[in-house]
Design brief:
The complex is a heterodimer of chains A (515) and B (321). Chain A is of the alpha+beta class. Helices cover 29% and strands 24% of the residues of chain A. Chain A is globular, with a radius of gyration of 26 Å. Chain B is mainly alpha-helical and 321 residues long. The radius of gyration of chain B is 24 Å and the shape is globular. The chains are: A alpha+beta (515), B mainly alpha (321). Chain A: This is ABC transporter substrate-binding protein.
Chain lengths: 515, 321
Amino acid sequence: MTRSAFSAAVAFCMLAAPAVAQEPKRDLVVATSQADAGKLDPHLASAGADKGVLNWVFNALVRIRPGETSPEFIEPDLAESWTSSANGTEWTFTLRQGVECHGGYGEFTAEDAVYSIRRAANKETSAFSGDFAALDRVEAPDPYTVKVTLKTPIPSLLGLLSNYHGGLMVCGKAAEKLGADFSTHPIGTGPFEFVEYLPQQYIKLKANVAYFRGTPQLDTVTYRYIPSDATRDLAFQSGEVDMIFGRQNNQWVERTQAVPGAVVVGMEPAELNSLYLNKTVKPLDDIRVRQAIAHAIDRKLMVAFTGDKVAREAISVVPDGNLGVVDAGLFPYDPEKAKALLAEAGYPDGITLKTIQSSLPVLLKIMETLQADLKKSNITLDMQVVDHPTYMADIRKDLSQVTLYQAARFPVADVYLTQFFHSRSTVNTPGGVVNFSHCDAADAEIDAAKRELDPVKQKQLWKTAQEKIVADVCAVPFSEQLVVWAWNGALDLGYDLQGSLNLVPQLTEQTHFTK
Amino acid sequence: MPARRKFIIMLSFLIRRIALALTTGFVVLTLVFVVVRILPGDPAQVILGDMASEESLTALRQRLGLDRSLPAQYLDFVGGALSGDWGESMVTGRPVVTEIMTVLPWTIELTVVSLLLGTAVGVPLGVWAAVNRNRAVDYAVRVVSLLGLSFPAFVSAVILLLAFAIQLRWFPVISARSGSVGAWFQSITLPALSLGLIMAAYITRVTRSAMLEVLSEDYVRTARAKGVPWPAVVRRHALRNALLPIITVVGLFLGIQIGNSVLTEIVFNRPGLGKLIVGALNQRDYTMLQGMMVIYTLIVVFVNMLTDIAYGLADPRVKLQ
């Protein structure tokens, strides 16, 4: 071969190369910060990382459109359509036909839906049974019709039956056959089906080729458990992992954005950071002291501390983005006024408050900043730092005068208002949940909103409730933190991601790699 | 000494050691139960999450048997432990024994490989430094081993990852692989180096000082005076007599290494006992914690027993004590 012929051959190969370019990847690797899987049963999983992966395996009767978090975006999922009675207590769902359960467990019918709802409402088999307290009965008049009857109307039955918490639908035959093993072999109807679980390593899923919305464009999804932040970052940099759970600070976001091709997103639902003040103990039983604390917290400073890419100022005692949230007129930052209020209440030299604080770095750093901020107004926080499980137990025993708590809930104002501010939810009582402040300022409005069927009036009641709680200073909300994820830019989720209720981006049949 | 008497002495030595190990095991079972129950925190709370009401928590505590009296729970635990039934994890619902046995081989593998690596590097280096006392080699070995001692395992782990997984790309970041020998080698190298080098540093220093002591003994001088070649003096007369402190350190390290492996497992993302116990502690998984602590204790007791027996083999005087 002459030199020119050889050069021509090389040039041809180089030109031809794009024609035989590699196919886009079809296997996705996602890494979470959880150390290992908990229960892989949708009715028992309470950790965000478990709920996230279960959402790729299971469907619900209705779903919140992928990428959104608000119940305003509820759309059909396993149910094609639904109707409700005028008083909101009887609901009838018509199911999609021909939906197959994974693993050859047959068609998903109304019987499976009834089985699932009863299972989710049973405290023996579900961590979310409390959400179904208003459920009277659920029946299947025919294979494609599900009838749900409530004792009393609730603000969002559709939310309850959506792809969140107890709303996920299991295949009854599989759950019965597998028994206790169901929590390690989840069988649903979703776009991806369970293949294997290796403890402390990963869960592997494969495409459900019979998925009713079409065969997924990804072949497999590996969900890896990588608890070390540094290792997760390095695995992302090395390309071993395509999508990672991120850290909630600007430095991390900026550093990860510098990784070639990386996409970093801060998504909803934002977790609201609030300081809950126990109204029943001295000196917090004096509203002037509580008002002083509200004036002493600089919301701008608290946002600047974590960074504006991952945090924003709180506007109410309910997280922004919740259905029914309003700008509730939080107290302005004014340390001089705070000192004056303390003096007026009989504490001219300031006060010292005892707080039990989690050692989780993300919470501890916030509390330390808060401690420095409050000190400017002569308010001393006496912090007792304990590990997170101890903190969780102790704050529910009323051992902390002020409690820093970070949370997101199903984004309807009712849920947050009920759990954090209704007297029925007061900690250390039989119905106690997370009302650390012993707040009872808006019980009447919260209850009335639950019964109200007119959405406009319902929102008005929630507005009044928020304003009353702010005025009574049951809590001082200051910032909201977004959930941060990063992924390889070649990955197209198939929708525009604003958020994900389960804190893990939804994967759908449309999710694919572009290269 | 007649063979029969020798055998009886050895047997009584073994019986004494085993009886001691059993007593230790029982005491530990009791301590484990008490310690786990003293921990503040509530497994029911962790399992159900923060949205659960007090009523659901009470119901779950009843289901898990946490509402029963402590003596009743203790009897159940000891009975179960003796019959090999350690119950199910309170958090995942999977049997404790299965969970432990799934990850135990990973920890044993890492510990044994790093132990071999540490010994293979540490003993020759220590001997080399001792026979070259106060020369450049000795100083170099002492400085390097001091550096090794000063490095926490997780720091060296991250440095190894940055160098070999990110810059050179010789090894994966996620080092849990199986299948071929190549995959195994890739998966074990960096974690074993991270743990093994720290151990090598300890063993080097102990070997060096033990050897220095023995090398100044009269019998070593006599051996040299008799004309025994220097390598043989070092190997047969000095090293054999310096073995006891080295065995002690290796035995101690086997226990420490299993504890150290927690961070190594987390940074290299390998499965293992360390990750399991940290998870169980964070989740207040009483049954899992109990099982894990018993396993750790059994390992330490077993290793101590092996060390004692190794003493006996290395030094005949030990059995007579």
